């Protein structure tokens, strides 16, 4: 199949470009249905005239329904999208990207979805759906699932379909609150995921950033102590990866300390720790919930992050925890590969 694809790229590249464009249009309709032509054109950054032409084609092929309230994908269109997914994966070279990153970052598994969150925020929906589908393949009865908060993790929870096929599942927040929107706090997302999995859940009712004295006192409260113990016993941890400077600002860290982080080479952040590109922790903040040392004992670590701008951050965190599972996008994957190749070139020089 790879040989055939290479021949097609050389002989009829325009056909593959058209296929990729139509796949992107269908995918955008699918994730945002019902959607109007104008909004579709805006999302894709193409003219309404082009959209109208392509939609008329899809309509004739019975792939799309056009109503007064917007366009939707037909059952046949959904089937076509599913069959095209693997082909487009190969067409874009995503399988090779996955293997390269797995090998050079020593990861258990890498999944790359098409697109770049930095250029199109709708790609985050695809990351969420892909992650949700993957999650349901690894859950087993009696598992404890811990998850952090954030917009990316919310996308996963939103895309998990309701089921009662698992028994005795417990979902816990991996961390306390972060002064952010309630909808994306770990407590909220843990409760929502538990509801979708017909599982139990526990809440960590305290703020994430408190000083050591407060943490010591809080951890002796029975309700808090119980949740912390469950977090430490988690079978699966789902977490996001942030850029060091951005996460420091969100936590209200003053500019002088942010500059100090930069001087120490911090590029990535996860579970209250700031990492340099080698995967070393340069600063660790007191946190209620999961700690860096806890992650070494968890069976399945799933890091979720997308966008070319997060490439350095992703590398830094994944190097700390090898054997991770990483779900990211094409933009981040390409940049990660470039960074690794440049590092190898500099080593050889």
Automatic annotation (TrEMBL):
<keyword id="KW-0804">Transcription</keyword>
<dbReference type="InterPro" id="IPR036390">
    <property type="entry name" value="WH_DNA-bd_sf"/>
</dbReference>
<dbReference type="InterPro" id="IPR051054">
    <property type="entry name" value="SorC_transcr_regulators"/>
</dbReference>
<protein>
    <submittedName>
        <fullName>Sugar-binding transcriptional regulator</fullName>
    </submittedName>
</protein>
<keyword id="KW-0805">Transcription regulation</keyword>
<dbReference type="InterPro" id="IPR007324">
    <property type="entry name" value="Sugar-bd_dom_put"/>
</dbReference>
<dbReference type="Pfam" id="PF04198">
    <property type="entry name" value="Sugar-bind"/>
</dbReference>
<dbReference type="InterPro" id="IPR036388">
    <property type="entry name" value="WH-like_DNA-bd_sf"/>
</dbReference>
<dbReference type="InterPro" id="IPR048715">
    <property type="entry name" value="CggR_N"/>
</dbReference>
<dbReference type="InterPro" id="IPR037171">
    <property type="entry name" value="NagB/RpiA_transferase-like"/>
</dbReference>
<feature type="domain" description="Sugar-binding">
    <location>
        <begin position="91"/>
        <end position="337"/>
    </location>
</feature>
<dbReference type="Pfam" id="PF21715">
    <property type="entry name" value="CggR_N"/>
</dbReference>
<feature type="domain" description="CggR N-terminal DNA binding">
    <location>
        <begin position="19"/>
        <end position="88"/>
    </location>
</feature>
<keyword id="KW-0238">DNA-binding</keyword>
<comment type="similarity">
    <text>Belongs to the SorC transcriptional regulatory family.</text>
</comment>
């Amino acid at each position: 199949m790879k040989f055939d694809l290479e021949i097609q790229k050389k002989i009829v590249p325009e056909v593959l470009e058209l296929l990729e464009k139509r796949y992107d249009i269908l995918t955008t309709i699918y994730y945002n249905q019902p959607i109007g032509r104008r909004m579709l054109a805006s999302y894709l950054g193409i003219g309404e005239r082009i959209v109208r032409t392509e939609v008329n084609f899809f309509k004739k092929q019975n792939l799309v329904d056009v109503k007064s309230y917007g366009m939707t994908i037909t059952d046949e269109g959904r089937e076509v999208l599913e069959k095209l997914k693997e082909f487009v994966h190969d067409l874009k070279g995503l399988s090779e990207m996955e293997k390269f990153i797995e090998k050079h970052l020593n990861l258990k598994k890498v999944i790359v979805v098409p697109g770049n969150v930095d250029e199109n925020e709708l790609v985050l929906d695809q990351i969420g759906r892909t992650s949700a589908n993957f999650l349901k393949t690894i859950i087993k009865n009696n598992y404890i699932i811990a998850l952090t908060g954030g917009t990316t993790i919310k996308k996963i929870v939103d895309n998990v379909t309701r089921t009662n096929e698992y028994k005795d599942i417990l979902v816990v927040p991996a961390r306390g609150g972060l002064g952010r929107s309630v909808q994306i706090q770990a407590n909220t997302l843990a409760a929502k995921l538990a509801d979708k999995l017909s599982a139990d859940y526990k809440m960590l009712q305290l703020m994430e950033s408190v000083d050591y004295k407060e943490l010591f006192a809080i951890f002796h409260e029975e309700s808090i102590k119980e949740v912390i113990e469950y977090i430490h016993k988690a079978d699966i941890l789902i977490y996001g990866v942030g850029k060091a400077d951005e996460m420091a600002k969100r936590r209200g860290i003053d500019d002088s300390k942010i500059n100090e982080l930069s001087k120490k080479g911090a590029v990535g952040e996860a579970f209250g720790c700031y990492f340099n590109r080698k995967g070393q922790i340069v600063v660790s903040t007191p946190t209620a919930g999961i700690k860096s040392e806890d992650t070494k004992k968890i069976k399945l670590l799933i890091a979720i992050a997308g966008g070319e701008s997060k490439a350095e951050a992703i590398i830094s965190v994944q190097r700390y925890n090898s054997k991770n599972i990483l779900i990211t996008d094409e933009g981040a994957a390409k940049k990660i590969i470039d960074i690794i190749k440049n590092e190898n070139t500099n080593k050889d020089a």
